[in-house]
Q: What sequence folds into this?
């Protein structure tokens, strides 16, 4: 950002009087673009979800609005905006209004460090992974608030479940991401992706680095599903038990916020998995740095989006296959299975990095053959 | 919990999930599995015995009241008067399709088979009154008066004929049948 | 699997929750008043009666034949069975001999309806457990059964097909072939369901050892049908008190085996229904092969007045024993018609088995008992 500011000031010297204004403007533009992306993705995500669900269930899915129903999400969005925003009289007015924003902020702030391309990242924070973990925790506060403020017992149960679930699954999520951090030696998402490059193609990915990181990927996906409240871990919403959980009393655009946050979360999870295990934007067998910057960015963006969307599809596919866990089983799964396994993996990767000096299996095989 | 059962638990969870996901994936990829029909454009078959809205052919109806008697929900209302030729003349025949449960008992019981089920099942209305299907469009009062007139005429004629034939006056027939429900 | 909470550590307060009458997984307008300690249910009291329509009184106000469409509304997922049960009851009362072809047709439609009813039970149960896809697969198969029914009787849900003394119309040409086609299509689907969801680890985990009903309790509380057989009691009216042409068929009575947990848990009740679908397929194949020609309805006077007397007839419906107790005073209307419905009886044990479960388990219990509200409240 500073470099870009410096560049613009260099080009247009008149702006030198207020460099902070340029920076602010740039931040605004970037934030706007990312917000737009998140919004559109949330819409597209709902479309994708409905279409895949329909395919799996032998139905057709949305096909009336726009070509093959592509504009369905616009219609849904307009409907949500036009709906009356009902606030129950018995609800805690301020908290009730605040909760959707907290959840919205929590999941959208994570987009800051999503590495969309070679140099397409809002801010390459040196604590990237850590930052994501931190801001997505905001969601649990939002959910708890939403559940509490609705003054509805079902909502409160949902909020409580959500808080317990998100807090317990933070640990396996973090632990499952650590192998990637260890291998790259950095918390920055861009550094992690750069460490997976090289001419090995897909075998340069952390996924194939060593057996522990391989399992880490799956553990991460499972834990992340739980953190985003998706089936089979959607007990906070659990439409067949808690009616709709914490968002029972919400309507109109406030409900829309919950909805968008859910899909934003799904994307962030897939993007992080892509960045940490699937090579991020690395174009197989190509060094992105050697291409002209425009092409490098476009290509890497395409590669990244393809991988992330594929993971989103998998998450949706899982949702439409599996039943839901019970709340005690969910907790047991976290503390008895996920936590020990991720710790075991963490240990394994640490030892691997220590013993083999950070070399992965494909790298070793490659070095045998020269 | 032994380590073996611990690992077995994980293994079972993974394999059963994979099994299920394979099935859903197969359905997801196979487009031929779609069973939905796009309703207003595509339509499913309407079977011959389909019990849709009731329709009464008032020309063949003999106003025998069987359908009214058998109907468990009293959705049919029938009014008839005795006509000049001693047959019943329908004054009104209404079916309240809001009440009708399409059980088909009335159709089965109908002696001249004038009451039938149509294949129709689509109807939307904005007022509750529209749910009553009228099979006689003429005003009931008009029919009643007309029939009464006919009966009176026939009676007068009969009286005249009788007078002519036997040249002996007879008391005139009653003007009209008392109204029936 | 009841979790315990240490009451001494923190002062906790019980919460009263209203589950229903509008709740997505109470299968209708059942209201369950839950007293919970957090997620753990201390007491769950079912409150029935939101769908009471006074069917028994309606029966007294209608001639015997005109009550037939109301039996459709008794258990709307198995209307054919209710139709047939009522018809058998009236025939028993009046001593009417039913043509054999009519009996065969009744058995065929009853077994088909048993399949479709168990399909809905399976589907809605899995939907309650959070897996929505099997529900739509079940609905898809049921549509085919509905198509078959529509062809012979004209309706898709409230069939009103049986008549006193037989059935309303003979089968259409080629209908039996279509049934066979459906059976060939349907049988492999059962294995698919088993692979998709039945033996799924999460699903088994949700059902095994939940709401165990001992065989003694089952008998004491009067549970019937798959709920009774799920506890390992091999009692099936089709075998133990044979009616109609059931003795001619060779089929097994499915019982719970305690496969994944204790005998009589939710999983056993669930798996009994899956197995019963296979048995129904077996019966159907035999019935199609054996069906004789002949009339489909006996000569019954139009104004039907059975001699004064009383009778009780019970039939094995998808949800258990449906009984009709009819008293005739020699007039055209029954003097009294008492209906024994399995779901209503099942609700008696609800409070006992749900003690100490979690809220999510309540949903599983309701689903595994496969209750249907019009039957509870009639």
A:
């Amino acid at each position: 950002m500073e470099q870009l500011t410096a560049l613009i000031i260099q080009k247009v010297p008149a702006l030198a009087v207020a460099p902070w204004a340029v920076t602010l403007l740039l931040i605004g533009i970037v934030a706007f673009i990312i917000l737009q992306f998140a919004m559109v993705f949330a819409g597209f995500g709902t479309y994708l979800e409905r279409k895949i669900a329909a395919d799996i269930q032998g139905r057709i899915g949305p096909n009336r609005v726009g070509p093959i129903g592509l504009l369905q999400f616009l219609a849904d969005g307009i409907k949500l905006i036009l709906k009356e925003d009902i606030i129950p009289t018995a609800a805690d007015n301020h908290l009730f209004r605040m909760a959707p924003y907290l959840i919205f902020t929590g999941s959208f702030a994570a987009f800051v460090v999503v590495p969309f391309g070679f140099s397409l990242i809002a801010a390459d924070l040196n604590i990237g992974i850590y930052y994501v973990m931190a801001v997505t925790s905001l969601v649990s506060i939002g959910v708890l608030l939403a559940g509490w403020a609705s003054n509805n017992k079902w909502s409160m149960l949902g909020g409580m479940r959500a808080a317990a679930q998100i807090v317990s699954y933070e640990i396996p999520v973090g632990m499952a991401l650590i192998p990637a951090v260890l291998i790259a030696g950095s918390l920055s998402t861009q550094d992690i992706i750069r460490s997976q490059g090289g001419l090995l193609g897909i075998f340069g990915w952390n996924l194939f680095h060593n057996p522990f990181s391989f399992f880490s990927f799956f553990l991460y996906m499972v834990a992340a599903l739980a953190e985003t409240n998706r089936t089979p871990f959607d007990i906070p919403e659990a439409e067949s038990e808690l009616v709709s959980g914490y968002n029972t009393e919400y309507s109109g655009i406030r409900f829309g916020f919950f909805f968008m946050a859910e899909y934003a979360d799904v994307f962030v999870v897939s993007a992080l998995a892509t960045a940490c295990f699937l090579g991020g934007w690395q174009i197989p067998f190509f060094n992105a740095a050697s291409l002209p910057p425009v092409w490098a960015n476009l290509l890497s963006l395409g590669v990244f989006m393809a991988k992330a969307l594929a993971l989103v599809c998998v998450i949706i596919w899982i949702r439409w296959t599996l039943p839901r866990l019970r709340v005690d089983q969910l907790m047991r799964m976290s503390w008895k299975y996920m936590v020990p396994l991720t710790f075991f993996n963490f240990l394994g990767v640490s030892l691997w990095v220590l013993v083999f000096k950070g070399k992965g299996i494909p790298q070793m095989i490659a070095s045998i053959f020269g | 919990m032994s380590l073996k059962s611990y690992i077995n638990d994980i293994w079972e969870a993974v394999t059963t999930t994979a099994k299920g996901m394979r099935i859903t994936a197969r359905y997801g990829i196979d487009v031929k599995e779609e069973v939905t029909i796009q309703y207003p454009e595509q339509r499913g078959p309407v079977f011959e015995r389909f019990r849709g809205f009731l329709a009464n052919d008032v020309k063949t109806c003999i106003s025998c009241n069987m359908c009214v008697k058998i109907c468990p929900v009293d959705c049919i209302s029938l009014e008839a008067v005795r006509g000049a030729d001693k047959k019943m003349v329908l004054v009104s025949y209404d079916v309240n399709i809001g009440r009708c449960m399409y059980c088909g008992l009335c159709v089965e019981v109908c002696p001249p088979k004038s009451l039938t089920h149509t294949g129709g099942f689509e109807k939307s209305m904005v007022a509750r009154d529209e749910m009553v299907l009228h099979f006689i469009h003429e005003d009931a009062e008009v029919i009643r008066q007309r029939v009464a007139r006919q009966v009176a005429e026939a009676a007068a004629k009969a009286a005249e004929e009788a007078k002519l034939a036997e040249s002996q006056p007879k008391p005139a027939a009653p003007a009209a049948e008392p109204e029936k429900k | 699997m009841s979790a315990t909470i240490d009451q001494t550590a923190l002062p906790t307060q019980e919460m009263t929750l209203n589950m229903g009458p509008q709740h997505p997984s109470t299968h209708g307008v059942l209201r369950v008043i839950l007293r919970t300690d957090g997620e753990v249910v201390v007491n769950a009291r079912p409150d029935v009666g939101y769908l009471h329509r006074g069917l028994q009184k309606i029966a007294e106000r209608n001639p015997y034949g005109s009550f037939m469409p109301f039996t459709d509304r008794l258990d709307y997922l198995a209307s054919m069975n209710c139709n047939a049960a009522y018809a058998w009851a009236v025939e028993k009362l009046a001593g009417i001999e039913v043509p054999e072809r009519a009996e065969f047709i009744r058995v065929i439609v009853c077994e088909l309806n048993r399949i479709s009813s168990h399909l809905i039970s399976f589907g809605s149960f899995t939907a309650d457990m959070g897996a929505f896809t099997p529900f739509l697969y079940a609905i898809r198969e049921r549509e085919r059964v509905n198509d078959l029914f529509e062809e012979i009787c004209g309706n898709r849900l409230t069939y009103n097909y049986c008549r006193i003394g037989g059935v309303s119309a003979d089968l259409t040409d080629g209908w039996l072939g279509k049934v066979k086609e459906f059976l060939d299509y349907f049988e492999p689907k059962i294995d698919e369901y088993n692979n998709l969801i039945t033996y799924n680890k999460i699903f088994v985990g949700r059902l095994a050892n939940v709401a165990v009903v001992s065989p003694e309790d089952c008998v004491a509380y009067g549970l019937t049908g798959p709920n009774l057989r799920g506890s390992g009691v091999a009692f099936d009216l089709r075998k133990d008190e044979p009616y109609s042409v059931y003795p001619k068929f060779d089929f097994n009575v499915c019982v719970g085996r305690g496969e994944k947990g204790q005998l009589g848990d939710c999983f056993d009740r669930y798996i009994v229904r899956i197995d019963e679908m296979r048995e129904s397929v077996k019966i159907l194949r035999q019935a199609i092969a054996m069906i004789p020609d002949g009339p489909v309805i006996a000569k019954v006077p139009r104004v039907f007045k059975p001699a004064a007397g009383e009778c009780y007839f019970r039939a094995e419906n998808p949800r258990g024993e449906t009984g009709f107790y009819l008293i005739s005073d020699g007039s055209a209307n029954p003097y009294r018609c008492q209906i024994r419905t399995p779901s209503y009886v099942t609700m008696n044990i609800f409070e006992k088995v749900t003690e100490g479960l979690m809220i999510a388990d309540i949903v599983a219990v309701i689903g595994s008992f496969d209750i249907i509200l019009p039957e509870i409240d009639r």
About this structure: The mean pLDDT of chain C is 85. Chain C has one domain: 55-377. Chain C touches chain A at residues 1, 3, 15, 17, 23-25, 38-39, 126-133, 136-137, 140, 196-197, 200, 202-203, 205-206, 358-361, 363 (CB under 8 Å). DSSP finds 14 helices and eight strands in chain C.
